[in-house]
Amino acid sequence: MKKHIKIAPSLLSCDFGRIKEEIALIESTDAAILHLDVMDGHFVPNLTFGAPIIKYIKKYAKLPLDVHLMVTNPNDFVQPLADIGVDYLSFHTETEYHADRLIHHIKNNKMKAGIVLNPATHHNTIEYLADIIDFVLVMSVNPGFGGQSFINNSLQKIARINDYRELNNHSFEIEVDGGVNDKIAPLLVEAGADILVAGSYIFNSDNYAEKVRSLM
Ligand code: DX5
Ligand code: ZN
Fold this sequence. Notes:
Blueprint: E1 6-9, H1 19-27, E2 34-39, H2 51-60, E3 65-70, H3 75-84, E4 88-92, H4 99-108, E5 112-117, E6 135-139, H5 154-167, E7 173-177, H6 185-191, E8 195-198, H7 200-203, H8 208-214
Parallel strand pairs: 1-8, 2-3, 3-4, 4-5, 5-6, 6-7, 7-8
Bound molecules: D-xylitol-5-phosphate (DX5) and zinc ion (ZN).
């Protein structure tokens, strides 16, 4: 049986001037999750949006919200995002001295907790967190911008995380973010990915449904 893969369109590449219509359009496809990129202009050079805009997105969205924090103070975002009703919340391990504590804080606020690995971050970073995380987000581009090319060694990293997960009977999900398209998607699934984020591949087209399906 073909593995069930969840597609998470990244709204970073949508038309924010028509956000309500964009959400309705993307929710009429087979997408499973909405991926939201919070950037602070410090951890990454780009600046996007925070809780006030996510609150507005939540008003129109029915799908679960997956917030990817690219900020130097992830802890400050937990309570506001929990209050809005965010479902998945992930942060970069480089941004937090006390990753174990932050994961518990996220889970105590009834959200799924994930850690994000930059392209240069070793896969074994997850080892002492594997019992408590709900998911790991493998960055397959350097964070900060949509529309970049997939970094090929991410495939090996995903496969190693998947092997580690199987060997130790862990249940966390593996999400991949950056440069995902229909050519790379089957390789990612084969390597062990469960959730595929895609921004420009979907939103730079005039048929979102077809693009989403092509990744499954
Ligand atoms: C990059 C973001 C991604 C981005 C992916 O820092 O984390 O979620 O939107 O965009 P594409 O799919 O265009 O690489
Ligand atoms: Zn992202």
